[in-house]
Amino acid sequence: MNRVGIEKINIYGSSLCLDQQELALARGRDPERVLRDFHINTRSLNPPYEDTVTMGANAARAMLTEEDKKSIGMIIVGTEGSVDFGKPISTNIQSALGLPNTIRSYETKHACYSGVAALDTAVNWIASGLNKGKKALVIAADFSRKHLGKDHEFVLGGSAAAILVSETPKIVEYETMKKGSYSNDVYDTFRPTAKAEMGNNEVSLYSYQEAVEGAYMQYLEQLDGPIDFDKYFNWNIYHMPFPGMALLGHRVVCKVSGLRKKSEIEESFERKVLPSLHFAKRVGSTYGGSNFVGLCGLLASAPVKDGDRIGFFSYGSGFMGEFYSGIVLPGAKDAILKMGIAQAMDARRQVSVAEYERIENLREEYIENPDFVPDFSVADNWYKEHYEGKGYLVLKEVKDYYRRYEWS
Predict the structure, then answer these.
(1) What are the start-end ranges of the H helices in 102-260?
(2) Residue after which a domain boundary falls, among 298, 331, 364
(3) pTM of the prediction?
(4) pLDDT single digits (tens) 18-61
(5) CATH code of 119's domain
(6) pLDDT tens across 178-196, in order?
(7) CA distance 115 to 328
(8) Strand, helix or coil for residue 44
């Protein structure tokens, strides 16, 4: 069986952001409580000329060399924000990046599990040897729909992650024989139409807890014997529909593992999990890219050592939970820092609440519109300042539903 893991990884947090405290004040909420409850400082916001296609391509563009592109034999995109119900956006991204035509290309969907579902397929393909030396490009790209003035408005956001998976990993090597899965049929959060994003908070919380416990217990069954949870996993990363949910996931695993005191759980969380929220706090809800945003945040901000084991939990509403693990490889931290993820987030333009509302209304107006040219003047002509001549993929127009993308 081939070694398999992440060779390269990058995060794209769009180019606009909204301060959560400003939103809280505009909605008559306590800003400090909003930050404390949700662990989100700013949320990413797409201008109307960005979508899941552009986000995914822009995440990959900064990461891939021409040699990387030639070596790719598979591209899989995990998303619940596709721009078409038939044509997969993997084809749009394949074309934009100039990937080979002799490539497998498709899209995966299972709410926020979609990104790890794509990763799992790539890992199995490479581990089996059927890749014949080729690499896989996995992309997870998602963003929130419009929820102006609603209670859950503070847990929105979006981002894209691009992951180059190969048999020569340099970031994390996956332990392919150690994995636990747990699934059930519920309506916790779902998108019944291209515009609607529905959810039941109570059902979602209970489903998440059921999934993490079930997946972790099956993971333990794959091991040779009992483990000391605190010593076995140096770090833990949980799916974060919003960053504050990572504490809930860790609490469940801690209690199963014998850590039951509130003080013990909080200490464990702050030591082993909190660093993974480093970038998630800046982009908000990350959907299918959650585990990858957590991994980049952990490596960028924590004293991670070569050989450390990371326990991952991925969750997708509906629902599917998966617990898996990987080993940190030499040079991983330096590789993440060289990608300049923090600097890219620093370069985003912070919008006012009024600008945010206008952009959200515009984005909704364009959904399923057969003909439109996106408004490139929003946010004081931010396109001209940030995009023009900088080589970002943008949506130029939609004509009779045909979408045209160009590099700026």
Answers:
(1) 114-128, 201-221, 229-232, 245-256
(2) 331
(3) 0.97
(4) 999 999 999 999 999 999 889 999 999 999 999 999 999 999 99
(5) 3.40.47.10
(6) 999 999 999 998 989 888 8
(7) 20
(8) strand
